[in-house]
Every structure is written in structure tokens, then in C-alpha cells.
Design goal:
Chain lengths: 921, 581
């Protein structure tokens, strides 16, 4: 008998039809499309409009027309709705809609956690003007290049850049706000049409697999359509195991039948190519076309679904228009519109609201070795010795749940880890760190100090009856810390002090897992929506941000445990908008399969585009046993993930890099060493991301925004603006099809061979390497000595690899700081810009402050040397190289095939912290 | 970099470059005295990289810039990171470390003289005196252990060789005697065959008559037994469906070990079943060719077998669910699990109350052939009655000495019985002799090392107590993991490699969702046989580290052979690697 055992248990998770508010909002969209000449029943009262201090307010009324009246549910208890449009100082616009005088207060506290600082209104706007069509327009932005054009009836807001329509709210008329209402059980639903029944499904309670969501507040969902005119590709809204360019979920020929779902869940061996919800949620979407780019942030942490449809453009353009329909179960309708004008501007505007990535400790971008589980101190020592013996660098060794005393976090298994401090010191002597896992479920145990304290201080989540919620997770019966309670954050952070977390040292960092949160006995394996947080906030309203709040509290604990603040390192599985401020995330429990390996690329690109660049996928695949070829290919690609960690399930066979023998050990060693040689580039890119909000690994379109061929390309990517990487995701491949964008040259990272764009070319990808190319016009800083860990490289000299473009120009940067403290925020860092122009390479400082000598990092490290400079792509021979007036050793030659001249300046001995120039004669 | 034309060295101001050459004896830093001649410039002051790929000025050796692709120009700086640095370690033993470990801020223990850190950032004290002293002490201790161990080993060798000799002698003796034993068995077999032939002939001649009678006798019983089999099969199928359902629908997120183990038990059962079905298929095709009509007795046995098989399967599945019921996590409320337990509970009373077996007595007793039909009253004139048939047959059989086939007072042993007994005795002796020979052959053929040193370890059992488990091995026998119950980790299969220090034990109990357990026993010298550490480097693959005198070689004797021991230098690792290839 053949039993088909599918990986994910789909029936453990809700489909839209099993979710009341999803059904109701989708039914409303069906009603609209089935009704001829559908008009939104929402109207704005022109007389009510007021514009003051950058905030436009007005009264919205719900006046059903004949076409929409059948959709009206009886019993609404409200006095109309309010509209607010905030023009912000970063050129973003915030749009809020809510009931004027709600009978039940909606949760509206998300801004406290999500936004980095209070919003500041813009003063850059003109007066409200009414045009000949009766539409009101506000022009805003420094050049008044942006406009918001408002229609009263039916209500609609259109955003324009330089007069070009870029984003429209409620164009499809799907705005729907479920006002507080009295329960109405009179209607006999059986006599009503299916559509009508769907419009009222699950308003008052909802059963899923024997667990009833009591919905004491009744229906309070809301939805809105957001239209991207003449924009065919939209991106973002992670986390889904799906393509970079989002697929259609509505309309003829829709690629998915279900909407994209945002609801943080612990999904076992998740399905590939699916809009099912996963561990994290970021309700940020970017629309991009050749002519325009626009971003939307839907600030809501309740369960949210998004439908995507591609429709004919009303302008008659050949390009389709993307219409998206967003609906959330609770909270308020609160969204931000970013008009750029470029995609980089949009990410900068977005990150100025929710924060850009925190600059990590420098070790965190090295290689991480993890497994469930390194079972003892001896095991740890032996694995460490394996890396030494095989000369493979690594920075961090990880301990999963088995290291604890009975899954009580902040404790150690007394027999297996008798002396954790000694263990950490042993690794630290070689510059290495450790990470232990700390999850948000706290074992119910009257002897366990964490449980006792949280109980005494009433810091646990309650159930719907306001008694302590008790669920099941790794330790058995457990409770969950309520991070909505402001006292919980400080209390949790204090658990990381060295005198509380016995056996921890300053080289021990943290891994937050299971923080969706995962509750084995809960509905959809998470907390019930009617569970209750501090201040009577229902879990429903904050579900998607719970994990991020936990992540934030842990990061705070690691930051403040030292007398002088140190940067934290915390890896989290759940995430939300703003998680980038607390640390890294990874794509959860993937599988050792080529398919899971391949989907990691679009997943990581999408997460990065949504403002969270520090991410990775478990190299090798968590479940199962990878064949050595898959493992090796995964290492080769993983070396270009921002977060680079190998991990494996308890039931899988050991797979430390040397266990498969040759040629695999050497191939994996080479991949990891490549990562280490490029750490200066990675760290520089993290610094850029921390100020600009840009991703670190980028979709091709991000670097080639006007090349339409790149818009759906998600099997190759850019590291920063300089390196093109193509993971090899098929077994037995010897060649790969690589798309070389632009009209410039690309230099093979390993042997300098030249390819020219644009177009797809088949290039060799033998077992020992994957295609990596340096883009002409860039300069990459490297450190080439193979060391044991990133810490050991801090005194090593640099190599600059220059690829000049057809104009003979190139540029690049290097950022350095102490890699641990926050001194860089005060100015103690080195930021250089390198430029080649007219055969002269110059280095100049981009530091903001002048008094550089007073800083200890600058003092100690500015004399580090650039020892080697490689010029590639020169158009003519070089007879001499002059550094100042110093004659210099060089090697030169040219690649006959490409006619490219190459010059290597050896022993350049140029101090990294000083201005200098190198002239090619 | 693919540079197709020869690189031109354009500008070099050699005087500006200071080579980091040690001043005392012109030996570049990091180069062992024995390799000094490799680091001599030619007359023009040039020097060739050791791989011959390039020629550079000798002043570029150790100038902290990597010129040679093989890294040989920087033996004393971390510039290349690929070569090896020689620590002279005066007061201790010289050693090599990778040049990538120079000036990395770590005082590598291999360089006790601290010479690996020389850039002034990290000071590494010279601890060679202390390290050397400790090391010498350890070395002395090691030598003592090896000496004592080697003494014991020599005893092992003596024992092993004499025991092998004895075994061989014994084997020769047995093999010599085996011919007459074989002959006796063959002779008695011939006698028996003749008697049997006579019996067979008789049975053939009366076959139809007897079978008809037997058919009538057993028909009602077969029907009864068949009904019981069907009943049992119905219950079996109920359990199958229940477990299929559990397997497919249980919640995999819970990782409930009780549920997992029930399902893996069921999977093993299904696999076994599949194997059986395949075997049967093969047999079926054979049977079909013969087109055999089954006799009544065969059908009766078949019905009994079917009942028995079904009951056995039910018992197994019953036990699987019962174990789950005892241990499963009640908090999960997994519907599929609860459903299975419900089925169990409904069924349990009939199963567990043995007096009220759910199929009645398992087997209906098969009456003797001559028992007749109890309901039948034999009338002499009724020639067709069973009793009459048997009476007639008995008379016929008695005439040819086969009267024993029928019940009745026995006066003496029949011819066949005597022949059978004689044959049984002779063949048993033959079997014993063969077994003994095989056992001896196995012992003689087991590889106890080139000088038989390991023979002494045969059947020696040693154990190692860990936190949760006790690990045992009976050398050349079986390895086990013991806690509340014993788990086999494998039986001796072979030595690994040619060094006679690593044994493999394979074919142990299969892991849940994993391979069969196996053990690698790695032996080092010690004065007694003991396990010193046990680990599980990969799931279900165990590693025992054991000490035994059987691998002790006298170190001091080795040293004596090496007359230049005082001048010994560390072997250059790069070269060594090459040699190994």
C-alpha cells in the first residue's frame, strides 16, 4: 500500500474560505465585480475638509447606493467615519480611516512599536485646490512634484508624481469598514443567497478544528483596494515561499486561488510556490515599472490577506494595471504611501519610518555553524577542532534546545554542559562566539526562576477568560511572556545580565525561535486570537508583531548587559516591519531539497526589499539529509546570503563541512573562504543598508530598474551594486544560464574573464564554483588571508579589486569600525570612497566628523594597509605606476581575447585611513 | 586573472624592500634548518618559488607580500597563509603551523616558543621549558604504559598462537573423524528410504479411498475454521484502517514520540507484509504450474493458518495502539490519535479476556484419520461407513507390516521406526560434527591480527557507564546499549583498514527513521581492556574509544631504531601530505 505523505499539513492552516473576515471581504469584491456600474458607497463631505499643519481631515459617510445596498449588513452602530491624510516631512503620506465614534475602541497602538520616532508633518505643500472636475488636489514635496487628488463621491484618492497617476486608493470601490454592531441573529441564513451568507460569515464566532474563536468584539475587519496604474509588477509582502514578482490571485487565469496571507505561523516543511502564510509578515509592497515606482506600507499587525489582480489599464496603455485588495481582521486602516521617485528613495522614506537595519556586530556576517543539537561540551570542542583541522573559518557555534536543563531557557544541561563559561572562553580564544537558543514559551514549573518571576509580576499572556493561558510547546505545559506589557520588555531584557543568565559571557549571543508564537496545542499551532494581552488588547490585534516585540526585548537585553553598550546579535524566526532594528531573521524550517534551495533566493530578495536585509536560509536544508552535491551548491550560494548559517534537524545525519570527504570538503572550504575574503565588502554594504534602508542582496531590477527583462528575474541576484551571483540549483549542472544586464562588461570573480551585456549567456559552473561576476565600474575591498575567524582578520591588509567601465571609471567604498560597540554613532569609524577617473585611483574620506584622531578605532586602525590593487578592464597598456612619488612594483598583462589590460600593484602599502592617489602611466 | 602574455615586471626598487630574513644564520624566519638549502638565492640574487612557477628576487622572501602561488615565498609571514611556519620550540619538540595562524592574535599551543606572534600586538611567552617538561613526563608515562602493555601483548601473542595451533589440531582431528560419521548417516538413510518406499507404495494404492473418507470427516470442521478465519480477518482490517488513518492524519507538528513510535512500528509491519506478499507471489506462480488440488487436510491447515496469521497481526497492531495509549500526550487532543484509542478501547475487552477469545478457540482440533465419524454407528453391512473403510484398510496394511499406521496395541517397534531412530541418531552426530567443524573453522579463520594478539580478547565483555546508558561490547561478538532494556548496536563484522586498531560492528537494531545502528571501536594502547569514551558522532553511529594491551608497541624500542632521535625534526606537513597521496 502506498501512502502519500505530503510535507506540509495544509489542513492545519486556514484557507480563505475557513476565515470569516477573508470570506466576507472577498465576497464584497465578488459583489462589486458582479454588480454592473459598481460604486463605492463611501462619500467624502466636501464641506468637512480641513487642511492644517500638514494634516487634511474630513468626514466620510457610508451611503449605500442601490447597487451596494444589498451588501449592507444591518445593525451598524456608528456615526460615520473620519479620514486623515498626513503629509510627512520625508515626503511620505499617511492615510487613516476609522469610525468617528466607535462603540468599541479599536486597537491603535501599533505605532508605538513600529515607528522609530514620532512623525513630523511636512511644511512643503500648497493649498488645497479644486479643479474643473470638482476634484481637490494638494501638491506636496520640495518641488511640489507630488500630488494627492481626492474625489468625493464615490470616495477615491489618487497619487500622482509630476502629473502621472502612480497609485489610487478605492478605485475599485472595495473600501469596507466593519463598524461595531449589535449581534443580529434574526435572519435565517439558509434562505439567503450564497453570496449574502458569505458576506456575513463568521462574524460572531469561528470554529477551526475543534477550537472556537469566541470573537467577543464581533466583526471589526476592514479592507481597501490599492491600484498601481500601468504597473505590472508588484513585490514584497513577505513571507511566502513564492516568486519575487507577486502572482495573481484573482481574475481570469489567476496563478493562485488563495490570496497572499500574512499571519505568522510555524509551518512544518512548508510548501513551495504558495501564498500560504509563513513565520513572518511585512505588509510593505513595492510597485515598479519602467516609468514609475511606488511603495505602500499597510500598518497593521492583525491577520491580513492580499488579493492581486492584473487588469486592463483605463488609459488604454498596453501595460497592465495591478489592482491589489488588502483586508485585515482588526485594528485601524492606517497606511503610508511613498512616491520616491526612485525605488531607492522609497526604501529610504520607508526606513525613516520603521527603521533601517541595525549595524550588526562584525562577527555576525561571518559563517555560523548550527545543528539541533551539539549535545555536549565535548561535542562542541570536537566540532571546533574539526574546523581547525580542516582549516575552515567560522565565527559562531550554535546550541539548540537540547543544551538546556529540561527546555528551561537561561539554564544549561548540568551533565552535558558542566562548564559553559570554560567552553565559551575556549572558543573566544580564537575570536569565536557562541549562540544559545531562548524561546518565548516558559515552562510551567514552580522551581524555575523565570517562570516564578513572570508569574509574580503578572507578565504572562492570559486566555479569553482572563486566567493565565497555558499551552504546549517543547518543555510541555508552558506560558508565553506578554510583550505588550511595557514592564515585560525590561524584565525580559534583565534576564540576560550575567548574574541572572548563569554561564553566559560577553561572547554568548541569542537565537529567538518559535516566536510566531508556536503553540503546539493552539489553533493553527499558535496563540488563540481571543487570548488577552496587557490592557485588554486581544492577541488578534497584535499577532503579527508579537515575535518582533520578543526579538526587540532580547536585543535590548544583549545591548545593556555590558557596562558600555555593545551591539546585540539576535536571530529571530518571526518578524514584522521594523524587525531589522533588532537583528537577523532566517526563512525557518526548510528541507534538504533542490526546490527548497532554489526558493530561498526569491524569498530572501523579497524580505530584503521589504526593508529587512539581514536574512538567510538554513544552508543544507533543515529537514532531511542533503546529498553532498546539494550541500556544496547550497554553501556556494549561502556564502552570498547576508546571514550565512548551516543548520540541521535532530533526525538528520551529521553534515559538518568535512564529513563528506573530497572533493566536497575543499569545495565547501573554498565557498566559506570566499565569504571571508569579501567580509570588508559585506560590512560596507551593511553600513549602507543601515543608513539608506536598501537591501544588501538585491533583485536584478533594483540595479537595472529600466531593464524590463529583469522584473521577474529571481534566480540570480546582485550583492550590493558590484557582484552578480547565480546560485546553481540543479543537480549535475556544469553550465548555467546567466543574464548579463546593461551594456557594460562583467568580470569573472575567479579568473577575470570578461562577459558583455546585455543578454543571457551560458557560462561554466563546474562543481567547485558558481557564477559570480564583478560589474564594470565598481571597486571591491577584500581581505585575502585565510584566517580562523573574522576577529582574527581585523589587522590584515586589504586588496582592492577594480573593474573599470568603458569610460575608464570605477568607484567603491569601504566602511570599518570596531565591529562591537556603538562608538561609530559618535564618529569613530573609517569610511572611504575609492574612485578611478582618468587612470588615477583616489581614496578620500567620507567621515562626517573632522577630529578623527581622538577616536580609538581610527587611531588604532587607520594605518592598516592596502597591500594589493588589481585594475581590470583597462583599455591600454600601463608602463609605470606612481604612488605619490614612490615607484612601485607592478605586474601587468592583457587578456588577448578581450583586449583587456590588467595591472596588479603589489606592495602598495597605502594606509587605509589616509587620502592618497595611484596614477597609472 | 587570465594573463596570456608573460607578465612584465615593470618597476622595482629593490633597495626599498626589507626582507625579513633572520640575521643569525641567514635562515629565513619560519624555515626549518633541514630545508635551509631550499632558501638560497642564485648568483643574481634571484630565487624560484618552490613549485617552480615563478622567479622572484630573494629579498622578496618574507617581505609580507605573497608572490608565489604556492605561498612558499612567505614561510615566516601570514601574507600567503597557505604555507607552513617552523617553530623551533627549543626545550620541546619542533613543530609546523599554517602561516595563516601567524600574527592572528592567538598564541597557538603548537608553537610553545611564542614565535608565531611577532608583530608586537600579541606577546606569546616562551613556555617550551614547562611544556617540554610536562610533555617529557607524559612521554615517559606513555612509554611505561606501552612497555607494560607490550609485555602483556606478548603474552597475548603467545596465547593467540598456541590457541590457534590447538584449534587447528582439533579441527584436523574432527575433519578426519567426519568421514566415518558421514558414512554411518548415509547407511542409515538408505535403510530408512527403503522402508519409506514401501510405505509410500501402500499409501499410493489406497490414496483415493482414504482421501474420500477424510474429506467427509473434515468438511464440517473446515467450514467452521474458515468462518473463524474470516471473522479474524475482519477485525484485522479494522485495525489496519485505524492505523492507516492514524498515520495519515495525526498532527506531525506535535512530534509526539508515542505516536511516532506506533507509526514506525506499523510501517515495519507493512514492510514485512509487503515482503511476504512478494514471496507468496513467487510461490503462487510455481503452484499454478502444478495445478494441485488441495486435500481436505491441507485446506484445514490453510484455514488454521489464516486464523493464526490474522490473530497474530491483530495482536501486533493491538499492542502498537496500546503502547501509544499508555504514553501519548493527552494535551494535544490529536483527533486521529483519539480515534485510534477509541477503536482499541472498544475491542480490548474481547481481546484481553482470554476465556472469551473473540474467535473462540483458535484451532479446531483435527481428529486422527482413523477416529471415524463420532456420530456414525458402524454397521458391518454398511460398506461405505468410515469405520468399515478403516477396518478394511487396517487389515490390508497389517499384512505388509504397516499395521502401526492404525491405532491399536503395539507389540514391538516397526521396521520403519527402527530405521528412523537409527537414522536420527546418525544424522544428529553428523550435524554435531559439522557444527563443531564450522565453529572451529570460524575461529581459525577470524582475523586476530597478523600475530594472533587479539585472540585473547574473544568473548571478553567490557562496559562503559554513561549518564543515561551503559554501553557494552563483547569483543568479536556483539555491542549493546543498555538502559531499561538492551538495544543491539551491532555484531562484529570486520577490521577497518590494515592497522588492526579499529573494529566495525554492524547490523544493530534499526533506528527510528534512521539506519541500523553500528559501532566503530577504536583501540589505543593501555594496560587493561576498557572503554574510555563513547560518543554518537552521527545519528545511530557510535564510536567507542577503548584501551587494550593488544595494540601496545614498545615506544622505547622504536626509539632505539632511530639512532638520530635527538636530531629529529618535525616533518614538513605539505610534503607529508604529498607522500600520503
Amino acid at each position: 500500500m502506498a501512502l502519500v505523505v505530503s510535507a506540509v499539513k495544509r489542513e492545519d492552516f486556514k484557507s480563505c474560505a475557513q476565515s470569516g473576515f477573508c470570506t466576507r471581504n472577498r465576497a464584497y469584491a465578488d459583489l462589486a465585480s458582479e454588480t454592473p456600474d459598481w460604486e463605492s458607497p463611501f462619500r467624502l463631505d466636501p464641506a468637512s475638509l480641513q487642511l492644517e499643519d500638514g494634516i487634511l481631515t474630513g468626514d466620510l459617510m457610508h451611503t449605500p447606493t442601490t447597487s451596494s445596498s444589498s451588501a449592507e449588513s444591518s445593525g451598524a452602530l456608528n456615526d460615520g467615519y473620519t479620514l486623515e491624510i498626513h503629509l510627512l516631512d520625508n515626503d511620505a503620506v499617511r492615510v487613516r480611516m476609522s469610525e468617528r465614534d466607535p462603540k468599541r475602541r479599536r486597537y491603535d497602538g501599533l505605532h508605538k512599536t513600529v515607528l522609530v520616532k514620532p512623525l513630523i508633518s511636512s511644511s512643503q505643500y500648497d493649498h488645497l485646490a479644486r479643479d474643473e472636475n470638482g476634484l481637490f488636489t494638494i501638491n506636496y514635496g520640495s518641488q511640489r512634484q507630488n500630488s494627492a487628488r481626492i474625489r468625493f463621491a464615490p470616495f477615491q484618492i489618487e497619487f500622482l508624481v509630476d502629473g502621472v497617476s502612480t497609485l489610487v486608493l478605492n478605485e475599485g470601490g472595495l473600501l469596507k469598514i466593519e463598524a461595531a454592531q449589535a449581534r443580529n441573529d434574526v435572519a435565517d441564513t439558509r434562505t439567503r443567497a450564497l453570496l449574502e451568507r458569505r458576506l456575513e460569515q463568521g462574524m460572531w464566532s469561528e470554529r477551526f478544528k475543534d477550537i472556537v474563536d469566541t470573537k467577543p468584539r464581533g466583526p471589526e475587519s476592514f479592507g481597501l483596494d490599492i491600484t498601481f496604474p500601468e504597473i505590472e509588477d508588484v513585490y514584497g509582502i513577505p513571507e511566502h515561499a513564492s516568486s519575487l514578482s507577486l502572482k495573481t490571485t484573482r481574475g481570469p487565469g489567476a496563478q493562485y486561488t488563495e490570496p497572499y496571507r500574512l499571519y505568522n505561523l510555524d509551518v512544518f516543511e512548508y510548501e513551495i510556490d504558495s501564498p500560504m502564510a509563513l513565520y513572518g509578515s511585512i505588509p510593505f509592497m513595492l510597485g515598479h515599472s519602467k516609468d514609475k515606482t511606488v511603495g505602500v506600507f499597510w500598518m497593521n499587525a492583525a491577520e491580513t490577506w492580499i488579493d492581486i489582480e492584473k487588469i486592463k489599464s483605463t488609459s488604454g496603455s498596453n501595460r497592465k494595471t495591478t489592482r491589489t485588495h488588502w483586508y485585515s481582521e482588526a485594528g485601524v486602516l492606517d497606511l503610508f504611501v511613498f512616491l520616491g521617485p526612485t525605488h531607492r528613495d522609497i526604501l529610504k522614506q520607508y526606513s525613516s519610518l520603521v527603521g533601517a537595519t541595525a549595524l550588526p556586530q562584525s562577527f555576525a556576517i561571518g559563517y555560523h555553524q548550527c545543528r539541533w543539537n551539539y549535545i555536549s561540551q565535548k561535542d562542541v570542542t570536537e566540532v571546533d577542532a574539526g574546523f581547525e583541522k580542516h582549516e575552515i573559518p567560522y565565527d559562531v557555534l550554535w546550541l539548540d534546545i537540547e543544551h538546556t536543563d529540561g527546555k528551561r531557557y537561561f539554564t544549561w544541561h548540568p551533565e552535558q554542559f558542566p562548564d559553559p563559561i570554560d567552553m565559551q572562553l575556549h572558543l573566544a580564544s580564537k575570536g569565536r562566539k557562541m549562540v544559545t537558543i531562548i524561546d518565548p514559551h516558559i515552562k510551567m514549573d514552580k522551581e524555575y526562576h523565570v517562570s516564578i518571576e513572570a508569574t509574580d509580576k503578572s507578565l504572562f499572556v492570559m486566555n479569553s477568560l482572563l486566567s493565565p493561558f497555558d499551552g504546549w510547546c517543547w518543555p510541555g505545559s508552558s506560558q508565553w511572556v506578554d510583550f505588550e506589557n511595557p514592564r515585560a520588555k525590561d524584565w525580559w531584557a534583565s534576564q540576560f545580565s550575567y548574574d541572572r543568565y548563569i554561564g553566559s559571557t560577553n561572547t554568548l549571543f541569542t537565537w529567538n525561535d518559535m516566536n510566531e508564537p508556536s503553540v503546539f496545542t493552539g489553533p493553527e499551532i499558535t496563540l488563540p486570537k481571543d487570548a488577552m494581552h496587557h490592557n485588554r488588547v486581544e492577541h488578534r490585534s497584535i499577532h503579527n508583531i508579537y515575535g518582533a516585540m520578543f526579538h526587540a526585548a532580547t536585543a535590548q537585553g544583549l545591548t545593556t548587559r555590558n557596562e558600555t553598550l555593545q551591539r546585540p546579535f539576535v536571530l529571530s524566526r518571526a518578524f514584522f516591519a521594523g524587525s531589522q532594528r533588532y537583528g537577523a531573521i532566517w526563512t525557518g524550517d526548510n528541507k534538504a531539497s533542490w526546490e527548497h534551495f532554489a526558493v530561498a533566493t526569491p524569498m530572501l530578495l523579497t524580505i530584503g526589499l521589504a526593508g529587512l536585509p539581514f536574512s538567510g536560509a538554513d544552508v543544507g536544508g533543515f529537514f532531511g539529509d542533503p546529498e553532498p552535491e546539494l550541500l556544496t551548491r547550497w554553501y556556494q550560494a549561502g556564502a552570498f546570503y547576508p546571514f550565512f548559517r548551516a543548520h540541521a534537524h535532530l533526525d538528520s545525519k551529521r553534515r559538518e563541512p568535512w564529513l563528506f570527504g573530497e572533493p566536497y570538503t575543499s569545495q565547501i572550504r573554498a565557498a566559506i573562504r570566499t565569504r571571508y575574503s569579501l567580509l570588508p565588502l559585506w560590512y560596507t554594504l551593511f553600513q549602507e543598508a543601515s543608513t539608506e534602508g536598501v537591501p544588501i542582496i538585491r533583485p536584478m531590477f533594483f540595479e537595472f530598474p529600466s531593464d524590463e527583462l529583469t522584473y521577474r528575474m529571481d534566480d540570480q541576484f546582485m550583492v550590493g551594486d558590484a557582484l552578480l551571483v547565480k546560485p546553481v540549483t540543479t543537480a549535475g549542472a556544469t553550465h548555467s544560464e546567466v543574464y548579463f544586464a546593461g551594456n557594460e562588461k562583467w568580470f569573472d570573480f575567479y579568473d577575470g574573464q570578461v562577459k558583455r551585456g546585455p543578454g543571457v549567456q551560458s557560462v561554466p559552473s563546474p562543481a567547485y564554483k558558481i557564477p559570480v561576476y564583478q560589474r564594470a565600474g565598481t571597486i571591491i575591498p577584500k581581505r585575502e588571508k585565510p584566517r580562523r575567524s573574522s576577529k582574527e582578520m581585523e589587522n590584515d591588509p586589504f586588496t582592492l579589486v577594480i573593474a573599470v567601465d568603458s569610460n575608464g571609471e570605477a568607484s567603491g567604498r569601504l566602511y570599518l569600525d570596531d565591529g562591537e560597540s556603538f562608538e561609530y554613532t559618535r564618529g569613530d569609524y573609517i569610511l572611504r570612497e575609492f574612485k578611478v577617473q582618468g587612470r588615477v585611483l583616489t581614496s578620500r574620506s567620507l567621515n562626517r566628523q573632522e577630529s578623527e584622531t581622538e577616536w580609538s578605532f581610527i587611531r588604532r586602525f587607520s594605518s592598516l594597509k592596502v597591500e594589493r590593487i588589481v585594475f581590470q578592464g583597462l583599455s591600454g597598456p600601463v608602463s609605470r605606476v606612481v604612488i605619490g612619488d614612490r615607484p612601485t612594483a607592478v605586474e601587468s598583462g592583457h587578456d588577448v581575447a578581450g583586449g583587456q589590460y590588467v595591472v596588479v600593484v603589489s606592495k602598495a602599502n597605502l594606509p587605509i585611513g589616509q587620502d592618497w592617489s595611484v596614477t597609472l602611466l | 586573472m587570465r594573463i596570456t602574455c608573460i607578465p612584465i615586471v615593470i618597476t622595482l626598487a629593490l633597495s626599498l624592500v626589507h626582507a625579513n630574513v633572520a640575521t643569525d644564520n641567514k635562515l629565513p624566519r619560519g624555515v626549518a634548518p633541514s630545508r635551509a638549502k631550499m632558501y638560497t638565492p642564485d648568483t643574481k640574487g634571484q630565487w624560484a618559488c618552490l613549485d617552480g612557477s615563478k622567479t622572484i628576487p630573494f629579498t622578496a622572501v618574507n617581505d609580507d607580500y605573497c608572490d608565489c602561488p604556492d605561498g612558499s615565498d612567505e614561510p615566516g609571514t601570514p601574507a600567503c597563509g597557505t604555507g607552513y611556519f617552523y617553530c623551533s620550540n627549543i626545550g620541546h619538540t619542533p613543530a609546523y603551523i599554517k602561516t595563516s595562524r601567524l600574527n592572528d592574535g592567538v598564541c597557538d599551543p603548537e608553537c610553545c616558543d611564542g614565535s608565531d606572534e611577532f608583530d608586537g600586538r600579541t606577546h606569546c611567552p616562551n613556555v617550551c621549558e614547562q611544556v617540554g617538561a610536562v610533555s617529557r613526563k607524559e612521554r615517559e608515562k606513555l612509554e611505561r604504559v606501552h612497555k607494560e602493555g607490550n609485555r602483556i601483548r606478548k603474552e597475548y601473542v603467545v596465547y593467540g598462537q598456541s590457541s590457534k595451533k590447538k584449534l587447528k589440531e582439533q579441527l584436523d582431528k574432527l575433519q578426519a573423524a567426519s568421514a566415518s560419521v558421514k558414512q554411518a548417516a548415509a547407511d542409515t538413510k538408505a535403510t530408512l528410504d527403503a522402508a519409506n518406499a514401501k510405505l509410500k507404495e501402500y499409501l499410493e494404492s489406497t490414496k483415493l479411498e482414504r482421501e474420500a473418507a477424510r474429506e467427509r470427516q473434515l468438511a464440517p470442521l473446515i467450514e467452521q475454521q474458515t468462518q473463524r478465519a474470516e471473522h479474524a480477518n475482519k477485525i484485522k482490517n479494522l485495525f489496519r484502517t485505524t492505523l492507516d488513518d492514524l498515520k495519515e492524519n495525526h498532527n506531525k507538528n506535535f512530534h509526539d514520540m508515542a505516536v511516532k513510535s506506533t507509526i514506525s512500528g506499523y510501517d515495519e509491519y507493512l514492510e514485512e507484509l509487503k515482503k511476504q506478499e512478494e514471496d507468496e507471489k513467487k510461490n503462487d506462480t510455481k503452484d499454478k504450474e502444478e495445478e494441485k488440488v488441495q486435500s481436505a487436510l491441507e485446506r484445514m491447515h490453510a484455514a488454521q493458518d489464516a486464523t493464526y496469521d490474522a490473530k497474530k497481526d491483530i495482536g501486533l497492531m493491538f499492542q502498537l495502539i496500546k503502547e501509544m495509549k499508555e504514553k501519548y500526550n493527552t494535551e494535544y487532543n490529536d483527533e486521529a490519535v483519539l480515534k485510534a484509542i477509541k477503536v482499541l478501547d472498544e475491542f480490548a475487552p474481547t481481546w484481553e479476556d482470554s476465556s472469551n477469545d473473540f474467535v473462540g478457540e483458535e484451532f479446531i482440533e483435527i481428529p486422527d484419520e482413523d477416529a471415524g465419524d463420532k456420530k456414525e454407528e458402524v454397521k458391518p453391512e454398511d460398506k461405505g461407513a468410515l469405520g468399515e473403510v478403516y477396518n478394511r484398510l487396517q487389515k490390508g496394511a497389517s499384512k505388509i507390516g504397516l499395521g502401526f499406521l492404525f491405532k491399536g496395541p503395539k507389540v514391538s517397534k516397526s521396521e520403519i521406526e527402527i530405521a528412523q531412530e537409527a537414522y536420527n541418531k546418525a544424522s544428529e552426530e553428523e550435524r554435531k560434527s559439522l557444527e563443531e567443524i564450522q565453529k572451529l573453522e570460524k575461529k581459525v579463520n577470524t582475523d586476530y591480527g597478523p600475530d594472533e594478539a587479539f585472540a585473547k580478547l574473544v568473548d571478553q565483555c567490557i562496559e562503559f557507564k554513561e549518564i543515561e546508558y551503559t554501553y557494552t561490547v563483547c569483543l568479536f561478538g556483539e555491542a549493546k546499549q543498555k538502559s531499561h532494556s538492551d538495544t543491539s548496536l551491532g555484531t562484529f563484522s570486520s577490521w577497518e583498514g590494515d592497522n588492526y586498531d579499529t573494529q566495525l560492528y554492524t547490523g544493530g537494531a534499526r533506528c527510528w527513521n534512521g539506519p541500523e545502528r553500528s559501532v566503530k571501536v577504536m583501540m589505543t594502547c593501555g594496560t587493561e581492556n576498557k572503554i574510555v569514551a563513547v560518543s554518537e558522532p552521527s545519528k545511530c553511529e557510535y564510536l567507542y574509544k577503548m584501551e587494550t594491551p593488544a595494540v601496545c608497541h614498545d615506544l622505547s624500542e622504536d626509539a632505539k631504531d632511530d639512532s638520530n632521535s635527538n636530531l629529529r625534526e618535525a616533518v614538513y606537513p605539505g610534503k607529508k601530505k604529498h607522500d600520503e597521496l
